[in-house]
Amino acid sequence: MTAVFAAVAFAACLVGKICGMGGGILIKPVLDASGLLSVAAINFISACTVAGMSLWSVGKGILQKDRALDFKISTPLAAGSAAGGILGRLLFRYAAELTGNAEKAGVLQAALLFAATLATLLYTLKKDRLRSYRVSAPLSCVLIGLFLGALGAFLGVGGGPFNMAVLFFFFSMTAKTAAKNSLYIILISQAAAILYTVISGEVPSVEVSLLLLMIGFGILGSEAGSRIGSSLSEKRTLTLFLWVMVLVMGICLYNILRAY
């Protein structure tokens, strides 16, 4: 089992680093499909892994003075996303109570993740033919971030491709620039969600050694992704992004069908 978790964390964060998805978009549905842990435990371990790899990646970017990190735009987005992360956790808890248990809510997560990923895929395929904007007003950025944070936390994926689509549409960013800013937003939203989970006393039963293993291999994956991503063109980065979304949709469908 340990090897499975290590491989998932490494591969998901490698791709997540290149595409700006953070890794949760793959960790969450893949571990759901494995059936090795409860939905609540998977949500928590996914959030911690993504937060760890994002902190490492963003920290390196800041130290290296990476100009692709647009803090004027991303900071209010991240602030809104942090509040949205807490809101998303509350919404998931409400969904779990409404459906009777967290496992049933997990099926709802899979269905919504499929729909949101499909919408993002369709937009990305047509984005060059659609108008994009350059939003700069701080309040608008906070509100956009609030939506992103709530969606990512509710689905247990951190932000995934939704951040990228929003950065494409509202801020006219290229794929590589959006990827770096997306990780910054994911870091803040996931940190807020984890802090809320800890303070509210809702931390699920997870082995500390397993959690540290996931975070460690997530960081290794992000390092590998950084090296690979630097050699990829914008076109190839976007192509990888599209194929990952197709993969996520396939896993979501499997999880939905498996529940019935």
Structure characteristics:
260 residues, mainly alpha, 81% helix, globular
Structure explained in plain terms:
By secondary structure, the protein is mainly alpha-helical. It has one domain (2-259). It contains ten helices and no strands. It has helices at 2-19, 24-34, 39-63, 71-99, 102-126, 138-155, 160-171, 175-199, 208-229, 234-259. The longest helix is centred in the first third of the chain and has 29 residues, at 71-99. It is globular and about 45 Å long.
Q: Classify the secondary structure makeup into a structural class.
A: mainly alpha
Strand content: under 5%
Radius of gyration, taken over Cα atoms and rounded to an integer in Å: 17 Å
Percent of residues in helices comes to over 70%
Shape: globular
Number of domains: 1
**Between the first and last Cα atoms, what is the distance in angstroms?**
25 Å
Unreliable segments of 5+ consecutive residues: none
Q: Overall mean pLDDT score?
A: 87
Number of strands: 0
Question: Brief overview, please?
Answer:
The protein has 260 residues and is mostly helical. It contains ten helices and no strands.
Lay out the secondary structure.
Elements: H1 2-19, H2 24-34, H3 39-63, H4 71-99, H5 102-126, H6 138-155, H7 160-171, H8 175-199, H9 208-229, H10 234-259
Helix pairs in contact: 1-2, 1-9, 2-3, 2-10, 3-8, 3-9, 4-5, 4-6, 4-8, 5-7, 5-10, 6-8, 7-8
